[in-house]
Design brief:
This protein has about 800 residues and is an alpha+beta fold. Helix content is about 40%, strand content about 10%.
Length: about 800
């Protein structure tokens, strides 16, 4: 069950408040006292506030502060923090001539009552650091903590590997950060500052392990092994990050399992990591498993009975490659991608313009635009450009555009065939409305960053991002890239509409009336930028790509932004899409969550992500090429059955993951297996499949509830994060209890087979092929034939068998 975000936020806040206001000590930080020649506010004092929790959201980092004292959230602004400490001499937060009387020391050491409890024992080195800074005059050198680069160094304790080398090949521990069971590593972090100096800042950084089931890191930077696998050690200091992979090999497998030679660059990178981990890979999936898995992932449904029979009967060694080509050329592939991109770009009928009756039609236009491009295999950089540089007219003359747009509106009112997909630009992406008019520019910036860069910038709308490098100024700069996009009636549109309305008035006086003009609005680029709301304090920031160049100038900044996206060395664009495609075919991204490609969330296989992204760029952003590469890899074609020592592995692609079917896939697979169709109501063209449902909500049907029950997202968030991930009890409950399924069983494939006079064996075989994409084995056939032949009611017995098949884990998962 997904907890509503507002409830989750409340739970987290209450939990943090409890920790912050606890009267119990938080525990002594056992970090070794650093050798600091001269204490600096930005380099040493400010980072301590974060390590001690002082500037957390529930303490002094909240918008109201605590006890009249407010710090910037997570230390995002050292200048503001210094002003809060030393800007008011009457506050006694800093007392230069008597440092111990400074509230900055007296409160957290509990010499003066402190709601946050003991944070700074007076015999700790942290207390000594802060005291030295006060005694030295409590100075602040602005910019002294500007970090150019953060470097993590690893110290392996001597003498701890000898007992394991004999049990495991030296090659398996050859990775520079391979940690055998019983070993420990100590991490050190050096900051290289903008002024050219460098310093060991280990005592002032936060270090964590991205997977604490593999290894944990204490406050002193000591790494301890907890289990086999790979993790990343991430250090954070003053908004800069460093990370290093850590390998903990698995115990050796009792039996060797041969691994086929790499099929392509994917397998080279995956196999390298498996070798470092000492992990066995499962053998190739059977033909039945491969065809079903590939069909579910590419087409969102199971293969037909005839397709399964033909594939299994084919003895050509190249049949899998031919099957991949057939799947990638199938029209349903584009339908699946269009549905996915409607999720990614937040196609939400509730944010579309009036009239209400046209909203589901506009959703269909949005969907059709993507479907056409994936069907034609338009390169991803051009597809993204068609969204991100969109205007309604796209250079067309105003009078011609009004004529075409009026005809399109009339066609949409009459049917679902508006031919919008032929337009070069998806202006619907920008045609959003809210209760108070158009949404803030910041909303569009947040959505665009998530959809096309894989970045979660929302934190930086209000404060420095706590787990990435982005500041409010960075966010405001990106928002300015989009701030000149307007949706409404431009001056040119109003003038032309007035001219045409006057022409119609004159026509009515002299002859037959012309058809009325609809109320039209357009997406256009204004000479002036829309004002920022949340990032108003940074409104002067020039239009800037995240981590990229300044894009300010007389023309639309989006044009240069799209050009920057397609540059081969762009750090986000290709990686973000490659990560999405990988998640589509493996159930989890190389970076997870898929839109959190932050400095503190490194890829689980960085080499694979880099190589795959580079190959995608080299191919000219060819999506079909990328999908074929993934589908052809040994990694994708492995069995889901454990082999050797990989039973517990779920992160390194040693075997296929068993995944619950997405909502649309489950509904379409049910209908394909049962030979039935769905009626999705008046908001969708008749005869549509689940993957052809464009609106995010449906009226006049219970299927809207079914979609939500099965985990389809509602596209209301500014990220692709509404869709339920992972298994849920809701899916088996639906399959077991929904009355519509029993109705479909009664009227679909089973009835056709019975009416055709098929034998029990023939019916059972076809039901297995239709639902599970395999033949039943002899044991299954013998058992089921006995059950059917001895039943009083043959139809009822076969109905029970089919219902039981649909309720197996084999049917409801991709494996």
């Amino acid at each position: 069950m997904r907890i509503p975000l507002d409830v989750l936020a409340l739970v987290i806040t209450l939990a943090t408040v409890q920790v912050c206001s606890s009267q119990e000590p938080i525990g002594r930080d056992t970090t070794e006292a650093p050798s600091v020649e001269k204490v600096d506010f930005e380099r040493h004092v400010a980072p301590l506030f974060r390590r001690l929790g002082c500037n957390a959201g529930a303490c002094h980092g909240s918008f109201e502060g605590k006890g009249g004292f407010r710090l910037s959230l997570f230390g995002g602004s050292p200048a503001k923090d210094y002003a809060a400490l030393a800007g008011d001499p009457g506050s006694r937060r800093v007392v230069l001539d008597a440092p111990e009387e400074s509230l900055l020391l007296a409160k957290p050491s509990r010499h003066v009552d402190h709601e946050g409890g003991l944070r700074l024992p007076d015999d700790s080195w942290q207390y000594a650091i802060v005291r030295r800074w006060i005694a030295d005059g409590a100075r602040h050198v602005a910019g002294s903590g500007e970090v150019r680069r953060l470097v993590m160094k690893i110290e392996r304790f001597p003498g701890t590997r000898s007992d394991v080398v004999g049990r495991r090949s030296q090659a398996r521990l050859s990775h520079p950060t391979a940690l055998a069971p019983g070993e420990s590593l100590r991490l050190g972090v050096t900051a290289e500052f903008a002024d050219g100096t460098s310093e060991d800042v280990t005592a002032f950084v936060e270090i964590r392990s991205s997977d604490e089931s593999v290894a944990a890191v204490d406050a002193a930077g000591l790494v301890t092994t907890l289990g086999p696998g790979c993790t990343s050690l991430v250090a954070a200091y003053l908004g800069s990050f460093a990370n290093a992979p850590l390998i903990v090999p698995y115990p050796p497998a009792e039996e060797s399992v041969p691994r086929p030679s790499p099929a392509n660059l994917i397998d080279v990178a995956v196999d390298e990591q498996l070798d470092e981990l000492g992990l066995t890979s499962s053998p190739p999936a059977s033909d039945e498993e491969f065809l079903r898995r590939a069909s579910l992932d590419v087409l969102g449904t199971v293969p037909t009975v005839d397709a399964v029979r033909a594939f299994l009967a084919d003895s050509d060694p190249a049949k899998r490659a031919r099957a991949i080509d057939r799947l990638l050329a199938h029209p349903r592939r584009a339908a699946v991608w269009a549905s996915k991109m409607c999720d990614v770009t937040a196609c939400n009928v509730d944010t579309m313009e009036s009239p209400e009756a046209l909203r589901p039609k506009r959703a269909k236009m949005w969907y059709d635009w993507f479907r056409r491009r994936f069907a034609e295999n338009v390169s991803y950089d051009k597809l993204a450009g068609g969204v991100l540089r969109a205007t309604s007219r796209g250079g067309e003359s105003i009078d011609r555009w009004i004529e075409v747009e009026a005809a399109r509106e009339a066609a949409a009112l009459a049917s679902f065939d508006a031919e919008y997909g032929q337009r070069p630009f998806l202006d619907l992406y920008w045609r959003r409305v809210g209760p108070d008019g158009t949404p803030p520019v910041e909303d569009l910036a947040e959505l665009t960053a998530s959809a096309f860069l894989g970045l979660r910038l929302h934190c930086a709308r209000c404060h420095h991002h706590p787990y990435d490098r982005w500041s409010q100024r960075d966010f405001a700069g990106f928002a300015q890239v989009l701030a000149r996009v307007q949706f409404g009636a431009s001056t040119e549109l109003r003038s032309e509409m007035n001219r045409q309305l006057e022409a119609r008035r004159q026509q009515r006086a002299s002859g037959p009336a012309l058809p009325p003009l609809p109320r039209l609005q357009e997406v256009y680029v204004s000479a002036t930028a829309r004002p920022l709301v949340d990032a108003a304090a940074e409104a002067s920031a020039p239009a800037t790509a995240p981590g990229g160049p300044v894009l300010a100038g007389p023309t639309d900044p989006r044009e240069r932004f799209v050009d920057w996206l397609a540059e081969p060395d762009n750090p986000f664009f290709a990686r973000s899409f490659v990560n999405r495609v990988w998640a589509k075919y493996f159930g989890v991204g190389l970076v997870d969550p898929i839109d959190d490609m932050s400095a503190s969330n490194p890829a689980r296989n960085p080499a694979l992500l880099e190589r795959l992204a580079a190959e995608f760029v080299r191919s000219g952003y060819d999506v079909v090429y990328l999908e074929r590469l993934i589908l052809s890899s040994n990694a994708f074609q492995r069995s889901a059955h454990p082999a050797g020592n990989n039973a517990l592995d779920s992160r390194n692609f040693a075997r296929a993951a068993v995944r619950p079917l997405p909502a649309e896939t489950l509904i379409d697979t049910l209908n394909a297996a049962l030979e039935t169709r769905e009626d999705f109501g008046p908001d969708v063209p008749s005869g549509s499949t689940a993957y052809e449902v464009a609106p995010n909500r449906l009226s006049g049907t219970d299927l809207d509830t079914v979609f939500r029950l099965l985990g389809r997202g509602d596209r209301r968030s500014l990220c692709d994060c509404d869709r339920a991930a992972g298994p849920s009890i809701r899916q088996p409950i639906y399959l077991m209890s929904d009355p519509s399924i029993m109705h479909k069983i009664a009227v679909g494939r089973l009835t056709r087979l019975l009416d055709a006079g098929c034998s029990d064996r023939g019916i059972l075989t076809e039901l297995y092929l239709a639902a599970l994409s395999r033949f039943p084995d002899e044991g299954e056939l013998e058992f089921l034939q006995t059950q059917v032949s001895t039943a009083a009611d043959r139809r009822a017995a076969l109905t029970d068998v089919l219902w039981a098949i649909l309720n197996t884990r084999e049917f409801s998962t991709n494996h």
